[in-house]
């Protein structure tokens, strides 16, 4: 009941928030449902599907809701779907906390840390796959900490198949879990019958093979173009700073508890005696790959030069919270002062987590989650649909909402859905691309206007936007009609 009440409040606070990427999935879903094409721009099949399973859910949601006749209905369905997955992840986490933690105070602390994550609130009903990815991580953690060796084997396979189809990064976690499982098999702690293992692996491979076959047939590529376009977009130092900002804004108490546990463990080993035997608690041993995952995912983004968005890093949150509270439990077992005051300390940590949630929500999350930018794009998209020729070509940096409501050809200045003949031009810079394709209309806030071209402003909208969920900013959205002169065509 408490978890459900929290999610009702989340739905109220973030009732207007969605994200442009959600509409990209819906454009693909609409085109597949109505024309049979897997393309953002009809006639140009490009693989921009970074979450195949979420696309399948989007397609199903669109097919079920589009007959109602409103473009807004599929959006609502996908927002509710993401909320249901996130709510399910929260409920399963509560069950997991009761399984792994020994006292009521520690269970309450774990649940408080989970529910007080400001980015969880922001992305719960966003219409994206963040909740589904977090649910799969939680299911995997639940299976791997069970007493059944076969369930632990299935934990890795779940991540290799359904997980990787939800977020490709979950393949990294699947490798960590499988490596740890094989290590335990070698040590005699786990075993699985060979026929059962073969059947399980083949079953797990089926959805992956089906998607790869479908992607190759319909989009002529099994690798999403987003992987190349977004790689190296920022330097590693900037990516590391951004990841630290996101994590310390969401789970500072959990990170502090983990750090304290590591320091205390090291001090105990150095100053007193080896405690290897004491740390052979089964749950601690089984948490190893998930503890490594907390470090591995941000490191992956930093190494690849990606912007580690908050919705991506939510995939480590259940693991981070469990490891942190179990570290606190370990300190209570080995340090008398912590053991005596565990209830008061847990209460203080929980209150601190909710205080951080309040600060981040008020100063960062809510101000940029009012849906004003999406509303502006929605209004402009509808205007474009009603007032521009059907063969109009529109250049924009954010294409999802415009493409869904405007239903026109979009020149993607972000590079995500550009066809193969345009991508090399974009890699030399958006200016080179736009000189070649000659957009009929151009939409700021990303200023892609070219010298020598006359731009007539048609619509303008000033909204409070954001920069990757972290920095507030005022954005001027202006739709221009492009009038090409001789000089502008050179």
Q: Can you describe this structure?
A:
It is a single chain. The protein is α/β, with parallel strands linked by helices and 490 residues long. It is built from 23 helices and five strands. It has helices at residues 2-13, 20-35, 52-65, 72-100, 104-115, 118-123, 130-144, 149-166, 170-186, 194-219, 225-230, 236-250, 252-271, 282-286, 288-304, 310-313, 317-334, 336-340, 342-365, 372-387, 400-406, 423-427, 430-437, and strands spanning 393-396, 409-412, 441-443, 453-467, 471-484. The chain has a five-stranded mixed β-sheet, covered by helices on one side. Strand 4 (453-467) and strand 5 (471-484) form a beta hairpin. The chain is globular. It starts with a helix and ends in a 6-residue tail after the last strand.
Rg, alpha carbons: 24 Å
Overall mean pLDDT stands at 89
| Head-to-tail CA distance between termini | 65 Å
Supply the number of structural domains. 2
Order the strands across the largest sheet as they lie in space.
Answer: 2-1-3-5-4
Main sheet specs = 5 strands, mixed
Contiguous runs where pLDDT drops below 50 for at least 5 residues: 274-280
